[in-house]
Amino acid sequence: MPRINYVQLVCKLGADIPLDQREKALTDVGHLCLNGHPDIRVAITAAGAIPLLVRLLGPGLSDEVHYNAAAALDALSWNPHNKVAIAATGAVPLLVQLLGPGSSADVHSNAAGVLGSFAENAAIAVAIAAAGAIPLLVLLLGPGSTTDAKTHAAGTLADLAVNSESAGTIAAAGAIPALVQLLASSSTSKVHVAAALKKLAQNAACAATIVSAGAIPLLVQLLGPSSPASVQEATAGALGDLAAAGCGQGWNVYILPAAANAIVKAGAIPLPVQLLGPGSEVHANAAGALASIAIFPEHAATISASGAIPPLVQLLGSSFDYAAQENAT
């Protein structure tokens, strides 16, 4: 098999190359980035691929080109240094533009997913929000989008919501009712939706909106044994943050008991107690949810009566992670 000249291949991505040859080179580069050894991605990066791939995100090119260029950049961004370099080359506003109505459903999904990967970097997340991504991502949560687009949009919004200013923008754009609707969907990934609600629940103003939108009964249902451990973990975390909402300065304290009362009324307490037992992968968030609800004496008694004390004590003396032990106290 002939040795690949990566510099020669990458050069074929240039604007002076005929479009059909560029598209062929892009397909080859994308395949190598996605399926090749990490050393191949290093070689493609060293050959100068990043600025050329970013340019292929721009206007006037086909959905297929946009999709393949975004996918290749996503694969290169598995290296954190590349992630910063890609953002510095101007990829963020171009990816945000791809979320708009001029792109296909596949491009929407792919661009949202790539932005979600980039949003794991706090500085890039701020740039994504500043580029106007939030209202476009919220639109992708709606009925006109594919399941993949909704899932990726919810995941990206979860990462953006870590920033309190962005969380407020997400809520103002109408994300919370849309996310709550997705909790009842049979197809959308509940992990990303619950994660987004968990992050938003840490913002005082958002927590009340989540409760009033009817999220709590749906979240409680997802704690049940039919849900995967990853969904149970995200859901328990969201309920814990909702129950503890408003502990920050300036919060209307009457919201806190309303959330905790709604969680208890929905029958939540026995479910996180079960998740404390042997074989559970979500000890920390389950214990955290119970800790938040137990702030109120009447609920603490219910938690105790549900048999939570022995497994919580067991957590304190176990080899489980530190967060689980902290919440058990």
Report what the structure shows.
- The protein is an all-alpha fold and 329 residues long.
- Helix content is 69%, strand content 0%.
- The chain contains 23 helices and no strands.
- Helix 5 packs parallel to helix 8 (105-118), helix 14 (190-201) runs parallel beside helix 17 (229-243) and helix 17 (229-243) packs parallel to helix 20.
- The protein is elongated.
- The protein starts with 5 loop residues before the first helix and ends with a helix.
What is the share of helical residues? 55-70%
> Pairing-aware structural class of the strands and helices?
mainly alpha
Number of strands: 0
N-end to C-end Cα span: 61 Å
**If helices are DSSP runs of H or I spanning 4 or more residues, what is the number of helices?**
23
Instruction: Give the overall shape, derived from the CA principal axes.
Output: elongated
The fraction of residues in strands falls at under 5%
* Rg, alpha carbons: 23 Å
> What's the helix-strand series?
HHHHHHHHHHHHHHHHHHHHHHH
Structure summary:
This protein is mainly alpha-helical.
